[in-house]
Specification:
The structure holds 2 protein chains of 2 kinds. By secondary structure, chain A is an all-alpha fold. Helix content of chain A is 77%, strand content 0%. The longest helix of chain A is centred in the middle third of the chain and has 25 residues. Chain B has one domain. In chain B, 74% of the residues lie in helices and 1% in strands. Chain B contains 19 helices and 2 strands. A two-stranded antiparallel sheet of chain B has the order 1-2. In chain B, a hairpin with a 4-residue loop joins strand 1 and strand 2. Chain B is globular, with a radius of gyration of 22 Å. Classes of the chains: A mainly alpha, B mainly alpha. Chains A and B meet through helix 5, helix 6 and helix 7 of A and helix 1, helix 4, helix 5, helix 6 and helix 8 of B.
Chain lengths: 165, 486
């Protein structure tokens, strides 16, 4: 359960995530959007640390901040039209979109507040990396193997699309 | 640290291992093949499918889970694997001459087909939402690339990109649904989800509802049901024709395999509550598919909308539920695989290099240019429309019969009316083929059909007629595959 300091930290992080999330979709310059996305991902990593899931937090930073957003920034910088122009972030569908999204928000909040959450009484693991590694090699060995096939087929796919004839 | 290695029974997962190993083997051997011998990759891939099929026969009547209850072999999964492997086998055969003609014969194509098949098999056998999700990903990632395999063709690129963007979006829904179910149950294993739903009052737990709804969106995309069908026409039209046939056969059946498994077997105690939503989806899917198909002038696009409509008929079986409902759905998917691949094989046979000839007027006068192709096409179209004595008729008969038995007469009336509408656009092609003079064309040469394509036509025709005239043997197989679950 969250108490005192951690509760305060949680709300600060949540504010950062939501604030930067709004900036991502409203900034005129797409480069700035990408930078705010980095901030948003860092906030999510903070939440993971707060929930004592350090490994997931590290992965979040490595993959989302380190790989995905950097890739996006590269793509923006290599595409001259994207880099210089002021991109309009809204179109004629903004009103119907807003209505659907607010309906979804109300439904989600309603569902979340009515749910009886399953709470664990165990103390959080201190050695999460070791524990995850053990689970991947025992209980979750099948998904672990399948993921490698997913990556392999994605790799082949990328080569097929990118190679010269 | 204490390590408890779970008991693993590799025999159960043997068909999957065979498919996966051969896919990798093709990748390794393909670079060593000279340009004239690339076809060996194709031969390797159909050999893989045949071996997996034999391995799968040996699993019939087994009911056993392995990998800590994540992978379940039962007749239901085994039956679906037969559908996938048969579909992939036929697709590999029709791909060979097509790829040669279009000069895009690369080994990766067959490797990706095998990976995609592997994903489908995992979808059917997955007894854990994590495995189901990963199976769906292997299947989809391979398909995104295959849809864009004709890289010099802009329409193919567009198909690939559209499929990828929409597919990734749908995957997001599916994952979010899984997360919500995990949040309320505390496990992703279907067995534990069943226990949780039956022991607790699920109606009070809104999170499961939200999760189930999102799962329905994710699967609804894969099976191409309305309102998640927007990607279908463009992808079906733009993708290389064998891949169009592939997407409409195997992956659709795989989506249904997971959908039926999750909704009928895990959410079975709350069936009455979600039936209404699926009822509406089924009615919309049938109607939109058939009505929009009327207006198409391209046969690939027309078959795309027809494929949407057929997903609607199978959804009727899901609404009916129970043993008869599910067995009729299995029978339907098996029949659809053969009649659809058969029809697409004729479409491929009419094409030339760089010129697909998929306009409806290209079919006028086919009856005099190539009577045999025209007659076979007529059989497949009759089956798709649901005329006796073809597989399509028996399949529709069982699906609608099971729905009437469960008391959904209203939905059956909508379904029958839709079948009547569909007769118009299927028969229009038959009329064009036999009662119209051929359009004057510059390349009025004889239509040559490759040996492998002839083989596919023979197998599909035999299957369509066999299931239409003597449906009992395959129907009892479908019933046996369901009885282990109920």
């Amino acid at each position: 359960m969250l108490t005192g300091v951690s509760e305060a930290v949680y709300y600060i992080l949540a504010a950062i995530i939501i604030g930067s999330g709004v900036m991502v979709v409203s900034m005129k310059n797409i480069f700035h959007s990408a930078l705010f996305l980095v901030l948003c991902f860092f906030g999510v990593a903070g939440i993971y640390i707060l929930l004592s899931a350090e490994f997931i937090a590290a992965v979040q930073v490595l993959i989302y901040v380190g790989a995905i957003t950097i890739l996006m920034i590269f793509a923006i910088m290599l595409t001259a039209r994207l880099y210089s122009a002021q991109i309009k972030q809204s179109n004629e569908q903004v009103v119907p979109g807003l209505i659907i999204v607010s309906a979804l928000l109300v439904i989600t909040i309603f569902a979340l507040s009515k749910t009886t959450w399953k709470l664990s009484s165990q103390a959080p693991e201190t050695q999460t990396v070791a524990e995850i590694g053990k689970l991947l090699m025992t209980t979750y060995v099948l998904p672990f193997e399948i993921v490698s096939v997913v990556l392999l087929s994605a790799l082949i796919g990328a080569i097929v699309i990118a190679r010269r004839d | 640290m204490d390590w408890i290695i779970p008991a693993v029974n590799l025999k159960l997962i043997l068909p999957e291992i065979v498919v996966c190993l051969f896919a990798i083997l093709i990748l390794v051997t393909d670079p060593f093949l000279s340009k004239e011998r690339k076809i060996w990759s194709a031969h390797l891939s159909w050999i893989a499918v045949v071996i997996a099929f034999i391995a799968n026969i040996r699993l019939w009547n087994l009911q056993e889970a392995t990998f800590t209850n994540m992978f379940l072999v039962d007749n239901y999964a085994t039956f679906f694997k037969f559908i996938f492997l048969a579909g992939s086998f036929l697709i590999i055969l029709i791909s060979m001459s097509y790829l040669k003609r279009e000069e895009i014969l690369h080994g990766e194509y067959f490797s990706l087909i095998l990976f995609s098949t592997l994903g489908m098999m995992l979808l059917a056998s997955g007894f854990d939402l994590v495995v189901i999700f990963l199976g769906l990903e292997i299947m989809s990632v391979s398909l995104y690339v295959l849809a864009g395999f004709k890289r010099s063709d802009l329409a193919s690129n567009e198909a690939s990109l559209k499929y990828f963007l929409m597919g990734a979006f749908a995957t997001g829904f599916l994952l979010y649904g899984i997360v919500m179910i995990y949040g309320s149950v505390g496990s992703t294993n279907l067995g534990q989800i069943i226990n949780h739903i039956t022991s607790n009052d699920a109606g009070s737990n809104l999170l499961i509802w939200a999760g189930a709804g999102l799962l329905l969106v994710g699967f609804g995309f894969k099976i191409a049901s309305v309102p998640f069908h927007m990607w279908v026409p463009d992808v079906y039209q733009g993708a290389p024709t064998p891949i169009t046939a592939f997407i409409s056969a195997g992956p659709k059946a795989a989506g249904f395999a997971a959908l039926l498994r999750v909704f009928l077997f895990s959410f079975t105690t709350i069936k009455m509550d979600w039936t209404m939503i699926v009822w509406i989806m089924a009615a919309l899917t049938m109607s939109v598919g058939n009505i929009v198909a009327l207006a198409q002038s391209d046969i690939k696009r027309m078959l795309a909308y027809s494929s949407i409509a057929h997903a609607g008929y199978v959804l009727v079986a899901l609404v009916a539920g129970g043993e008869t409902g599910v067995s009729s759905a299995l029978f339907y998917l098996l029949a659809y695989t053969f009649m659809n691949i058969g029809a697409f094989t004729v479409v491929i046979a009419l094409g030339r290099k760089g010129q697909d000839n998929t306009k409806l007027e290209d079919y006028s006068g086919l009856g005099s240019r190539s009577p045999i192709l025209a007659i076979l096409m007529t059989i497949f179209l009759f089956s798709l429309a649901g005329f006796p004595p073809t597989a399509g008729f028996m399949a529709k008969f069982y699906v609608f019969g099971s729905a009437v038995k469960s008391g959904f007469t209203g939905l059956v009336i909508i379904g029958v009316l839709n079948s009547l509408i569909s007769v118009y656009y299927y028969l229009r092609i038959v009329v064009l083929m036999f009662m119209q003079a051929p359009v004057t064309r510059t390349d009025n040469e004889r239509i040559k059909v490759a040996f492998c394509a002839i083989l596919v036509l023979i197998i599909s025709t035999w299957a369509v007629l066999q299931m239409g005239i003597f449906p009992q043997s395959l129907l009892s197989l479908a019933q046996a595959s369901v009885s282990s679950i109920f």
